[in-house]
Amino acid sequence: MNQAKDPIPAAGAETPPETPAETAPAVKPSIPDESAGWALAERAAWHLMEKAARDVVVLDLRGHSDVCDFFVIASGESDQQVRAAARHLHDALVTAGHTPKSIEGTSEGRWALLDYFDVVVHVFNARSREYFQLERLWSEGARRDLKPSWFADAAVAARHPDLNFATAAGPGGAD
Questions:
Q1: Strands 102-104 and 70-76, sheet pairing
Q2: 152 pLDDT higher than 60
C-alpha cells in the first residue's frame, strides 16, 4: 500500500511567511465594553454593593488567563458580612438566570469565591484580601474600581434595565 506523504522542504527552501495573527500585536481589551462577561461582572459588583461591600474592583483578565475573563473583587467588614454578601450575590444572580459553576468559602467568611465561568467573584474580609493581593497578582489586565456613583450613569442603566439604580449614589447623593 503506497501512502502519499507531505514533502519535506529541501535545505535552503523558502519557508512560508508568518500569518497576520502571528505578527499582529495583541489588542488590549478595555472596560467597560459590550461583552456579556463585563455585564455580568458589573451586575455582580452592584449586588455586592447592595450588601455594603467595599472597595469593589473588576479586573479584565482576557488575554491573561484561560480560567475566566473577569475577576470581581470586594471586601466585607467582617466574616459575617462576607457570607451575607456572597449569599445575596448568589441569590440575585440565580434569580437573573446565572447559576454558578462552583461556590467556595461561604461557611467561613474569610474568602468566598463564586465561579460563573467567565466571571469569578472574590469576596474577602480585609485581612485576607491584604494577604492574597489578587489585584497585584493580576495587575497586567485592565482594572475598573466601581463605586455606587458608577451605577448612576445612563449607559449602565441601559445595560441592566431590570435593576433599580435610583439610589446608586447612596445616602447624600455622592460617594
A1: unpaired
A2: yes
